[in-house]
Specification:
The chain has about 325 residues and is of the alpha/beta class. The protein has one domain: TIM Barrel (Alpha-Beta Barrel), CATH 3.20.20. It has 17 helices and eight strands. An eight-stranded parallel β-sheet has the order 1-2-3-4-5-6-7-8. β6, α11 and β7 form a beta-alpha-beta unit. α1 crosses α15, α5 packs parallel to α7 and α16 packs antiparallel against α17. The structure holds adenine and zinc ion. The site of zinc ion has 6 residues, from loops.
Length: about 325
Amino acid sequence: MTDLATFCAALPKAELHLHIEGSLEPELMVALAKRNKVAIPFATVEDVRAAYRFTDLQSFLDIYYAGAAVLRTAEDFHDLAAAYFDRAAADGVVHAEIFFDPQTHTHRGIPFGLVMEGLTAAIDGARTKHGMSVYLIMSYLRHLSEEDAFATLREAEPWLDRFVGVGLDSSEVGNPPARFARVFAASRERGLRLCCHAGEEGPPAYVWEALDALGVDRIDHGNRALEDPALVARLARDATTLTVCPLSNVALRNVARLEDHPIDRMLGVGLRATIHSDDPAYFGGYIAENYRATAQARGLTRAQLVTLARNSLLGSFLPAPELVRHLAALDAFAA
Ligand code: ADE
Ligand code: ZN
């Protein structure tokens, strides 16, 4: 039998919860700071890594937004995303649906189109180089206003054929989903699918709101849904995908230790849970390492790992023919 790390990396899977800005490795951050003459409060790669001690979501977001300041040119966004796709391909990712946070860039004067130019060039390159399909999800920042999200949707208009959906991320507690109901409705009218971070730090009520006020197709994280049996029943009945990120949960102290992670409990109560990497450059591992470390800590079986990979494909926004093809490849792998 192959060892666990090899198995986890070879398992054909979809990455559904990855913030491209969260794949900015310290080496690239320092190199881009130099290339663009941007001052960062770190002299070396080691100094950057030493700053990654988080106490909660906000303590991470403060560093994550500061780090993004080194991204200035289309080439920077291309290089960031291309490096991520190389890593994802090595991790058995056959399809990726990645978030990007346009407001993080437009608010510091970087044009929307420049970000798109860099990201779409890298996406086209990933298809050629790795045979990987990549969809983009534009994430609205929930610490900003709904009007700001509407302005972002207007800026996105010329690029809408390059997106599959929209998401909602950033500081969760105090910023409930319902505040964004109108911009989500407008996004859906434009043919976009809907995702929302909910139940990462926020209460089960935020997950209910994401379902009922926004009408989302997927919940990002969703861990705290486990506190509400009626919510679990609803999510299980509708087979709503929860994109769970174990190493992120531990790094941001939403779960004390990986040994305590509820991923198998989620599967056990009938939730369509999946495993993803969130912001891997900050949290200590990409998707295969999330699978491996969680499997080791929780004693997951290979059958459970195959279920998690199957859930990731089922939870994707792939059209039926491609979904069927990927599921068949997974079945062949599992056999
Ligand atoms: N932006 C990037 N990573 C995030 C996370 N884990 N939660 C909320 N917003 C984010
Ligand atoms: Zn996230």
